[in-house]
Amino acid sequence: MKLPTTASLPECVPTRASAPLSSACAVACAALALASAVPAFGQPFPSRPVRMIVGFPPGGATDLVARILQPKLQESFGQQMVVDNRPGANGVISLEILSRSDADGHSVAFGHIGNLVISPTLQKVPYDPYKSFEPIGMMVTLQNIMIVHPSVQAKSLKDLIALAKAKPGTINYATSGIGSPGHLATVLFETMTGTVLNHIPYKGGGPALTDLIGGQVPMFTAVISTAVPQVQAGKARALAVTGARRSDALPDVPTVAEAGVPGYEATNWYGLIAPARTPKAAIARFHKDMVAALNSADVRQQLKDRGIDAAPGTPEEFTRFVRDEEKRWGPIIRKGKFE
Fold this sequence. Notes:
Blueprint: H1 23-41, E1 50-54, H2 61-77, E2 81-85, H3 92-99, E3 107-112, H4 113-122, E4 133-148, H5 157-166, E5 172-175, H6 181-193, E6 198-201, H7 205-214, E7 219-223, H8 224-232, E8 237-241, E9 267-275, H9 280-295, H10 297-305, E10 308-310, H11 315-335
Parallel strand pairs: 1-2, 1-3, 5-6, 5-7
Antiparallel strand pairs: 3-9, 4-7, 4-8, 4-9, 4-10
């Protein structure tokens, strides 16, 4: 903090160190010193580069969405937007980092079903999903998709179910991690079909997809945006999408419900959150620019091409949505096998 010079001091301030200050003058000096500090703490948001923390490595769906939004937010903010990949523990590490960041709006992170619902239900996490953060709003919704390596005998989901029942526990499937949306979707699938598959967790969708394409793992329950290019290129075979309707990006691929498991549905989503006590003005500005970016025609098209739906919502709507997801999936998570 820059201290006031002698010339800027009130007239009542003595210039000799030994001279006492009157109480009124002391108050005046304190006020002047505080005023000189305001620019350091009261600058309009954003006043420096903004960090968007992603809890998975490059190549996955969260990273894809972040990098689609990055140039739009950077332009609207007039500040550099940095995508900071902090993979690990199904996105828990990224939210731990966010919870310890300055609450000034310059650090935000992706909140999703994995780090806001699944992991807090399964284990103790180093944050409170509601008290540790301020919601900015929902961003997107997207499906998972069950894909297999082209060498796998299953040509359809019914074929996969038959194979799994014939050889319980022998079919390996990859996900982006323990407690990830793909893991939850597959546990629900096993529960509803009476099958037993063998879970191979990875640290993100990118590494899992690499091993699926390379034939190291035969099946991957992936976020659809990760899989679309590989399915279109014939490097992976799509069996079914996990949502309530087919994806515009892969319209010929049936839903799990259509493919033989009536009533099945598991949808993924991403929202944006900031540390608790972030100023309302910063939250409002971030929300406004986020919504504008998601509603822009080019961003919507980029997302749609990868099977992702822009779904911007208010902070209040996002909080209610997360609580509803917790009520819906909590019992399933607690009864399921997550290992």
